[in-house]
């Protein structure tokens, strides 16, 4: 068994920042990550980091924009913390050597971004995330922080009192991908989950193959509720074959969207008569899908984004990287033909419910980054607001776990007297663990309380049994089949368009997936670098996460932010200024709500119409 | 970590067909360099015949030069030297950071020039040789 | 890698000298080849001619520096090539010693021959 | 030919292989029928329209599995789709024919650096290499000069060690006073100078392609030197630190080892002019030393 004060799971922007903060606070911290840190998906972020740095801009404006962008589903204390801390934390990155783009006077450049009232997106070329990730990894190397890379974290070692608020987390169980050994890691002071997004729950996503929502699922099963999972951001222009993102820059420069009939549908079919292609992400995404659904898609799948008319010179000057992307990943030359694009899953606004200090309702369990929901993004994330979230809340979680006093949080977590139970919605199928009786050891079984060591040991044993079971089974279904089915269901029915019928259908398919998963087997008999095994475990996590997304999408009968419901075309502020929370409750998802906090430090954010 | 498989170095030589210009240039340069230093030692040895006396020197040189094989070797030496010089110049440029994009072309140019110079000097070198 | 922090530059000086001698050699070698294969046909070389050239102090000095430069360049090149192949430890020291001795011998012999040629002995 | 290629590797070509290790590896058409009752998602019927399959030969090795301990090549026939990359092909082969086919991959967009393979005799990123640009059969092997852990997975530890050796981090200790958010100034020109060097994604292709790195395990290698370049050339760090960096680089197994073979520059998927950077550092090191003469 390994032992550290603080264990950070995941080495993306959030995980690295958390580890550095805990280390600076004097903790013995270790990072456990299934990928080597520099492989984390934070490296894919292009746009930038929002921070009110310049004279004339201030954090209150940033907070206001974020709140408005969130469609008033962000919690004010979180939003304000983000806006207040972002400048300092961005500057710290600069001092750590991050190569930001520069102005003539040598200061960092900032550019305008959608939904921002001031150009406050700090960037480093078109590869901000790459630089952020590498700069922080460098600091981790400098500090000699221990990194267990290519260790796959399977489960949390959490005590199993009935009320999650009474539980505590004492460590993790992980297996060394290279050798296949399952080992326990005891965390004396805290476990910080920073496992990134759940994009692989969808068939078509801009997220990496590694974004499988492991942290979500582990925390969920340990008792921490998942919050606002129905809010998924879809990006309108991703390449059909891989999901690689084509940045908004193309449309910004004047790129035009055409359907298979050569119509400029944004105008000709009246989706956005004023802003056309430059309408907000969700509007464009819905327009594209409508075209495809009505038979005007190219190859019944995508639409065309044409930039040829901009001229070679301008394209080479401003959009050169787009040319490379289209060429390398789609085999299309953007100078001679239009590029195929379609909407792709891009970001999950929801996640593990945490407070401003990154703590969940389970004592000693923290979450930060895309896997967490503080919530700053509410119903919709503004471009450039995820990276500051990583560094601000990553840092806070690290410090708090290391024992620093960050003050009493205003956001509450877990069950409490301020929550309200879900009572109305009828579910098409019983969600939750399939065959609880033959459970593969992932549901808490109540009762036994042991000391921390015992807990970790016990969880290790369960995990070993689970691995053995999967490996020993010689027949059944392979995870790839289940995963594909799940992803297709999500992309077909819980995508940009959501109807009651569709979401219910998705829930039924998810149920089927769960049942099939009972017979899943790992074909690869080797313990060495068994990616088959790893992906099989990930698929299980995806099922849990997908289910919460679909459940959230079903119960929330309104149109807010990125969540669109066919039958409910308006934002219902009277009823829905509240977060959806889903708790695993020993294998039976339990849905409840907690009101949004709109009262900030010295003002209250009054919901207004979100129009730009 | 469990066992792993080390494929060793053989593969490099197995893959010679896939070598790039820069690799060939490196190999040739090495080869020619070694030839040249080898020659330098031999050369001094031959010249040392002058220590015995002028006659010996003239005879040794003349005797050697009358052999066809020596003449052929000399042409070879010329080729080797010319290539080493030309590619050496190319390397000096590379060291100064000049024309790095054209490094493959300049390697091919060295080869071609070497061939031309060598062929052109064959008459001079083989002049008056007795078989 | 203990030598990592040593303050002098292993390799750096040798690297530079390799380039400097190379640049020098280009000129002299071209001159040498031209003189002894094209101007004076190799087959017609006789001691008298050689002596005539060597008596010129300038020519003598050029040839000696040619030799020294060539030897350094060649031997250093060989040494580097061997090191690049992973030569290390004692082996490396032995090779270095052998090469240094060989070069010194070569240079000494060369200078001795040249002085003889010039008829100064 | 390398050792492993000399094995009789092609017992079959078009039909389903008898080899038990490749069970499940049926021709794509059979596979389609098997999947028949897939849910209402269109299961890429355009494959058949295009009617073409791609023939890939993939290096296989597993220390634990009998029959794979001796490296061999497996053949897969993957239905071609427009825009298909080498990574797509191996993923298809894994998900459809043989789930034990092992390789690293994550981002699918050339930023994570996980999937550098040796494809048709050259180090390339799987996700950034279009199938259409390659000659068939496409030979896919793990990166040369690194030990193979399994199939296409190589041990990267040595590469990481070399990257860490150059002290790849800002040395300055002082972090800004939160009150005054002053950044260190850097001219746009200086930022431009380090731009290319900062793009490295640690894929290891360059190191794998370099003969010198293959022969000398202590050689820092092009990627680490390039990393050091990024820091040495960054004006935000002072002269003193730059000198310290040069001292690391001019050690015996540092920049001098580079024999300007250029293969690193040729394979780098991020188009970093590695040789140029190495050469510049050699000159910097010489310049620095001349000062003491
Ligand atoms: C294409 C793209 C562009 C984007 N552009 C922007 C932008 O311009 N601005 C912006 O603000 N945001 C942007 N975002 C969003 C932002 O990049 C992400 O939200 C953010 O990087 C997530 O960081 P993270 O640290 O939470 O997770 P990640 O970077 O995804 O890291 C997750 C880590 O967890 C580890 N991990 C996961 N599961 C396990 C497990 N079971 N065991 C062990 N380790 C595990 C992984 O190895 C990895 O290290 C973009 C996102 C995408 C996809
Ligand atoms: C005439 C002009 C010459 C030039 C321009 C020249 C140039 C060079 C250069 C630049 C190198 C270094 C290669 C490297 O380290 O990357 C080199 C290596 C070498 N040179 Fe020369 N050289 C010349 C003449 C000679 C002569 C006359 C000899 C023989 C005495 C010689 C023998 C060598 C050897 C042995 C090497 C090492 C090759 C290796 O890497 O194994 N060179 N030359
Ligand atoms: S320098 Fe290029 S080839 Fe080398 S590791 Fe970095 S990105 Fe890969
Ligand atoms: S391939 Fe190797 S020799 Fe130098 S130029 Fe690149 S490091
Ligand atoms: S999969 Fe990330 S670089 Fe290819």
UniProtKB/TrEMBL annotation, chain A:
<keyword id="KW-0560">Oxidoreductase</keyword>
<dbReference type="InterPro" id="IPR030664">
    <property type="entry name" value="SdhA/FrdA/AprA"/>
</dbReference>
<protein>
    <recommendedName>
        <fullName>succinate dehydrogenase</fullName>
        <ecNumber>1.3.5.1</ecNumber>
    </recommendedName>
</protein>
<dbReference type="InterPro" id="IPR003952">
    <property type="entry name" value="FRD_SDH_FAD_BS"/>
</dbReference>
<keyword id="KW-0813">Transport</keyword>
<keyword id="KW-0274">FAD</keyword>
<dbReference type="GO" id="GO:0008177">
    <property type="term" value="F:succinate dehydrogenase (quinone) activity"/>
</dbReference>
<dbReference type="Pfam" id="PF00890">
    <property type="entry name" value="FAD_binding_2"/>
</dbReference>
<dbReference type="GO" id="GO:0016020">
    <property type="term" value="C:membrane"/>
</dbReference>
<dbReference type="InterPro" id="IPR027477">
    <property type="entry name" value="Succ_DH/fumarate_Rdtase_cat_sf"/>
</dbReference>
<feature type="domain" description="Fumarate reductase/succinate dehydrogenase flavoprotein-like C-terminal">
    <location>
        <begin position="483"/>
        <end position="612"/>
    </location>
</feature>
<dbReference type="InterPro" id="IPR003953">
    <property type="entry name" value="FAD-dep_OxRdtase_2_FAD-bd"/>
</dbReference>
TrEMBL record, chain B:
<dbReference type="InterPro" id="IPR034804">
    <property type="entry name" value="SQR/QFR_C/D"/>
</dbReference>
<dbReference type="GO" id="GO:0009055">
    <property type="term" value="F:electron transfer activity"/>
</dbReference>
<keyword id="KW-0812">Transmembrane</keyword>
<dbReference type="Pfam" id="PF01127">
    <property type="entry name" value="Sdh_cyt"/>
</dbReference>
<dbReference type="GO" id="GO:0006099">
    <property type="term" value="P:tricarboxylic acid cycle"/>
</dbReference>
<protein>
    <submittedName>
        <fullName>Succinate dehydrogenase, cytochrome b556 subunit</fullName>
    </submittedName>
</protein>
<keyword id="KW-0479">Metal-binding</keyword>
<feature type="transmembrane region" description="Helical">
    <location>
        <begin position="21"/>
        <end position="46"/>
    </location>
</feature>
<dbReference type="GO" id="GO:0016020">
    <property type="term" value="C:membrane"/>
</dbReference>
<dbReference type="InterPro" id="IPR014314">
    <property type="entry name" value="Succ_DH_cytb556"/>
</dbReference>
<dbReference type="InterPro" id="IPR039023">
    <property type="entry name" value="SdhC_prok"/>
</dbReference>
<keyword id="KW-0349">Heme</keyword>
Automatic annotation (TrEMBL), chain C:
<feature type="transmembrane region" description="Helical">
    <location>
        <begin position="94"/>
        <end position="115"/>
    </location>
</feature>
<feature type="transmembrane region" description="Helical">
    <location>
        <begin position="20"/>
        <end position="39"/>
    </location>
</feature>
<dbReference type="GO" id="GO:0046872">
    <property type="term" value="F:metal ion binding"/>
</dbReference>
<keyword id="KW-1133">Transmembrane helix</keyword>
<feature type="transmembrane region" description="Helical">
    <location>
        <begin position="59"/>
        <end position="82"/>
    </location>
</feature>
<dbReference type="Pfam" id="PF01127">
    <property type="entry name" value="Sdh_cyt"/>
</dbReference>
<dbReference type="InterPro" id="IPR000701">
    <property type="entry name" value="SuccDH_FuR_B_TM-su"/>
</dbReference>
<keyword id="KW-0349">Heme</keyword>
<keyword id="KW-0472">Membrane</keyword>
<dbReference type="InterPro" id="IPR034804">
    <property type="entry name" value="SQR/QFR_C/D"/>
</dbReference>
<keyword id="KW-0812">Transmembrane</keyword>
<dbReference type="GO" id="GO:0016020">
    <property type="term" value="C:membrane"/>
</dbReference>
UniProtKB/TrEMBL annotation, chain D:
<feature type="compositionally biased region" description="Basic and acidic residues">
    <location>
        <begin position="182"/>
        <end position="192"/>
    </location>
</feature>
<feature type="compositionally biased region" description="Low complexity">
    <location>
        <begin position="1"/>
        <end position="15"/>
    </location>
</feature>
<comment type="similarity">
    <text>Belongs to the succinate dehydrogenase/fumarate reductase iron-sulfur protein family.</text>
</comment>
<protein>
    <submittedName>
        <fullName>Succinate dehydrogenase and fumarate reductase iron-sulfur protein</fullName>
        <ecNumber>1.3.99.1</ecNumber>
    </submittedName>
</protein>
<keyword id="KW-0001">2Fe-2S</keyword>
<dbReference type="InterPro" id="IPR025192">
    <property type="entry name" value="Succ_DH/fum_Rdtase_N"/>
</dbReference>
<dbReference type="GO" id="GO:0009055">
    <property type="term" value="F:electron transfer activity"/>
</dbReference>
<dbReference type="InterPro" id="IPR036010">
    <property type="entry name" value="2Fe-2S_ferredoxin-like_sf"/>
</dbReference>
<dbReference type="GO" id="GO:0051537">
    <property type="term" value="F:2 iron, 2 sulfur cluster binding"/>
</dbReference>
<dbReference type="Pfam" id="PF13183">
    <property type="entry name" value="Fer4_8"/>
</dbReference>
<feature type="region of interest" description="Disordered">
    <location>
        <begin position="1"/>
        <end position="52"/>
    </location>
</feature>
<dbReference type="GO" id="GO:0016491">
    <property type="term" value="F:oxidoreductase activity"/>
</dbReference>
């Amino acid at each position: 068994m390994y032992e550290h004060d603080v264990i950070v799971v995941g080495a993306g922007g959030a995980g690295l920042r958390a580890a550095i903060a805990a280390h600076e606070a004097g903790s013995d911290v270790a990072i456990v990550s299934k990928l080597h840190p520099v492989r984390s998906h934070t490296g894919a972020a292009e746009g930038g980091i929002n921070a009110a740095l310049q004279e004339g801009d201030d954090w209150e404006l940033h907070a206001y924009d974020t709140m408005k962008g969130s469609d008033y589903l962000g919690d004010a204390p979180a939003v304000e913390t983000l806006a207040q801390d972002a400048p300092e934390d961005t500057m710290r990155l600069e001092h750590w050597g991050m190569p930001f783009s520069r102005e003539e006077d040598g200061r960092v450049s900032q550019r305008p971004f959608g939904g921002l009232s001031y150009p406050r997106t700090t960037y480093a070329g078109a590869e901000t995330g790459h630089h952020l990730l590498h700069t922080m990894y460098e600091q981790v190397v400098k500090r000699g922080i221990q990194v267990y890379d290519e260790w796959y974290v399977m489960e949390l070692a959490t005590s199993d009192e009935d009320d999650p608020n009474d539980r505590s987390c004492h460590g993790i169980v992980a297996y060394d991908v290279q050798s296949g050994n399952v080992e326990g890691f005891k965390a004396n002071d805290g476990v910080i989950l920073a496992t990134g997004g759940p994009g692989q729950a969808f068939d078509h996503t801009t997220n990496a193959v590694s974004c499988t929502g492991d942290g979500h699922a582990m925390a969920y099963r340990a008792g921490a509720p998942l919050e606002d999972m129905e809010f998924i951001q879809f990006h309108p222009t991703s390449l059909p074959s891989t999901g690689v993102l084509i940045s908004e820059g193309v449309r910004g420069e004047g790129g035009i969207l055409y359907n298979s009939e050569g119509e400029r549908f944004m105008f000709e079919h009246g989706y956005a008569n004023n802003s056309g292609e430059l309408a907000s992400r969700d509007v464009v995404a819905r327009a594209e899908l409508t075209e495809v659904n009505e038979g005007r898609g190219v190859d019944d799948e995508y639409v065309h984004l044409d930039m040829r008319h901009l001229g070679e010179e301008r394209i080479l000057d401003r959009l050169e990287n787009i040319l490379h992307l289209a060429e390398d990943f789609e085999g299309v030359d953007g100078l001679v033909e239009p590029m195929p694009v379609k909407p792709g899953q891009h970001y999950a606004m929801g996640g593990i419910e945490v407070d401003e200090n990154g703590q969940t309702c389970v004592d000693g369990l923290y979450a930060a980054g895309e896997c967490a929901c503080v919530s700053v993004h509410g119903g919709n994330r503004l471009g450039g607001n995820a990276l500051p979230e990583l560094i601000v809340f990553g840092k806070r979680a690290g410090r708090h776990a290391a024992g620093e006093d960050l003050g009493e949080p205003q956001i509450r977590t877990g069950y409490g007297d301020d929550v309200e139970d879900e009572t109305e919605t009828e579910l098409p199928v019983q969600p939750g663990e399939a065959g609880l009786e033959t459970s593969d050891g992932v549901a808490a079984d109540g009762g036994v309380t042991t000391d921390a060591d015992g807990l970790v040991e016990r969880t290790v044993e369960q995990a070993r049994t689970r691995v053995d079971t999967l490996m020993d089974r010689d027949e059944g279904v392979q995870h790839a089949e289940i995963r594909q089915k799940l992803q297709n269901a999500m992309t077909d029915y819980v995508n940009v368009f959501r109807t009651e019928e569709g979401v219910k259908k998705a829930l039924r398919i998810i149920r089927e997936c769960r049942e099939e998963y009972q017979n899943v087997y790992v074909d690869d008999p080797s313990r060495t670098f068994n990616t088959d095994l790893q992906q099989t475990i990930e698929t299980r996590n995806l099922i849990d996460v997908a289910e919460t997304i679909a459940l959230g999408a079903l119960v929330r009968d309104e149109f807010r932010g990125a969540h669109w419901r066919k039958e409910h075309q308006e934002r219902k502020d009277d009823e829905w200024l509240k977060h959806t929370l889903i708790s695993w409750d020993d294998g039976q998802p339990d849905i409840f709500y907690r009101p949004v906090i709109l009262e900030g430090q010295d003002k209250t954010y009054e919901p207004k119409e979100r129009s730009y | 970590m469990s066992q792993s498989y080390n494929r060793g170095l053989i593969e490099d030589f197995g893959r010679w067909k896939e070598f790039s210009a820069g690799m060939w240039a490196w190999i040739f340069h090495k080869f020619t360099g070694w030839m040249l230093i080898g020659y330098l030692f031999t050369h001094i040895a031959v010249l040392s015949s002058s220590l015995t006396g002028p006659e010996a020197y003239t005879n040794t040189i003349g005797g050697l030069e009358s052999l066809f094989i020596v003449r052929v070797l000399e042409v070879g030496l010329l080729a080797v030297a010319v290539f080493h010089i030309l590619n050496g110049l190319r390397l000096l440029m590379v060291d100064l950071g000049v024309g790095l994009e054209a490094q493959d072309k300049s390697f091919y140019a060295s080869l071609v020039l070497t061939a031309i110079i060598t062929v052109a000097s064959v008459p001079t070198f083989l002049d008056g040789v007795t078989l | 890698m203990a030598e990592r922090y040593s303050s002098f530059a292993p390799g750096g000086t040798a690297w530079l000298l390799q380039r400097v001698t190379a640049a020098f050699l280009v000129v002299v070698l071209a001159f040498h080849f031209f003189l002894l294969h094209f101007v004076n046909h190799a087959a017609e070389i006789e001691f008298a001619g050689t002596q005539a050239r060597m008596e010129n102090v300038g020519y003598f000095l050029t040839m000696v520096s040619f030799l020294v430069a060539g030897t350094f360049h060649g031997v250093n090149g060989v040494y580097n090539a061997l090191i690049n192949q992973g030569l290390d430890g004692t082996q490396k020291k032995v090779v270095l010693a052998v090469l240094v001795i060989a070069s010194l011998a070569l240079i000494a012999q060369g200078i001795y021959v040249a002085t003889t040629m010039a008829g100064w002995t | 030919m390398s050792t492993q290629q000399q094995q009789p590797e092609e017992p079959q070509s078009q039909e389903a292989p008898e080899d038990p290790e490749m069970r499940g590896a049926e021709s794509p058409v059979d596979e389609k029928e098997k999947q028949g009752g897939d849910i209402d998602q269109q299961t890429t019927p355009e494959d058949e329209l295009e009617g073409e399959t791609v023939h890939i030969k993939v290096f296989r090795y597993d220390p634990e599995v009998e029959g794979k301990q001796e490296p061999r090549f497996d053949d897969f026939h993957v239905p071609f789709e427009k825009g298909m990359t080498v990574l797509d092909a191996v993923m298809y082969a894994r998900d459809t024919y043989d789930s034990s086919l092992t390789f690293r991959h994550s981002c699918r967009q050339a930023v994570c650096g996980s999937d550098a393979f040796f494809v048709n005799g050259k180090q390339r990123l799987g996700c950034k290499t279009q199938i259409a640009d390659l000659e068939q059969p496409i030979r896919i092997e793990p990166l040369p000069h690194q030990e193979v852990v399994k199939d296409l997975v190589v041990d990267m530890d040595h590469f990481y060690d070399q990257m860490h050796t150059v002290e790849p981090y800002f040395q300055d200790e002082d972090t800004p006073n939160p009150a005054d958010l002053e950044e260190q100034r850097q001219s746009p020109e200086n930022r431009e100078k380090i731009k290319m060097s900062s793009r490295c994604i640690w894929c290891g292709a360059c190191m794998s392609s370099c003969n010198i790195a293959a022969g000398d395990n202590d050689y820092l290698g092009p990627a680490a030197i390039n990393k050091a370049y990024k820091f040495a050339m960054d004006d935000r760090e002072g002269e003193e630190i730059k000198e310290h960096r040069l001292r690391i680089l001019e050690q015996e197994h540092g920049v001098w080892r580079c024999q300007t073979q250029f293969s690193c520059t040729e394979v780098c998927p991020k188009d970093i002019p590695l040789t140029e950077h190495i050469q510049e550092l050699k000159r910097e090191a010489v310049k620095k030393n001349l000062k003491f003469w």
